[in-house]
Amino acid sequence: MKLIHADEKDERFLSLVEELDYGYYQRIGDELEKYNQYNEFKDPHIVILMMDGDEAIACASYRKFNEKSVEFKRVYVKKEYRKRGIAYRLIRELEKDVIEKGYKYSYIVTGNNNHAAIGLYEKLDYFKTDKFGQFKDDETVLCMKKRF
After folding, report:
1. Coil, strand or helix: which one is 140?
2. Which of 4, 42, 78, 102 counts the most CB atoms within 10 A of its CB?
C-alpha cells in the first residue's frame, strides 16, 4: 500500500467520499442534508489517498480554516481495510504537510457517537474544543483541535 497526494477533483477521492456519505446517510438519514453545504469542495483541499495497487481504499483531506489553522475533512477508510492504522497514517501525513506550510492548529469535527473516530483523534493528541461556526449549536457533533 502507498500514499499519494491528490486534490478535491480526483475521481478516486470523490468515489470514496460518496461511500462515506452513504454510510452517514445510513446512520443519520435525512439529517445529513444539513451538512451538505459545509462539505462542498469550494475551497481547495489537500487530499491524500491510500492505494492498494490501483484501488483507492482510504482518504483524508484538509482545507484552510484561517491564516493559522486548517480543518481536516473527509477521513474515510473502506470497511474491509479498517483497524490497520490507515486513518492514523493518513492524518499523520496531512499533519506533516500542515506543519511544513506553517499552520499552527488543525480542527476536526466528528459525530458525538463516532467513538472509533474520537478514540483515533485522541490518540493523535486532539482535544475537545468549543464548537465553532455552523456547529456552534449542533448537539450531534464534537469539535476537536490540535496545536503543532
Report:
1. coil
2. 78
pLDDT at 29 (0 to 100): 52
As for how many domains the chain has, the answer is 1
Round the average pLDDT of the chain to a whole number and report it: 86
Cβ(83)–Cβ(26) under 8 Å?
Answer: no
Full domain range(s) for residue 74: 2-147
In whole angstroms, give the CA distance from residue 92 to residue 97.
Answer: 9
DSSP state of 22: H
Provide φ and ψ at 129, rounded to 5°: -140, 170
| Reported confidence tier of residue 112, pLDDT bands at 50, 70, 90 | confident
- Mean pLDDT of the region 114-124: 93
Q: Are 6 and 47 spatial neighbours (Cβ–Cβ below 8 Å)? A: yes
CATH number of the domain within which 124 lies: 3.40.630.30
For the entire predicted model, the pTM comes to: 0.82
Q: Which residues pair with 60 in a beta bridge?
A: 48
- Distance, CA of 137 to chain centre: 21
Q: With contact defined as beta carbons under 8 Å apart, do 148 and 99 qualify?
A: yes
Question: Is residue 32 scored above 50 in pLDDT?
Answer: no
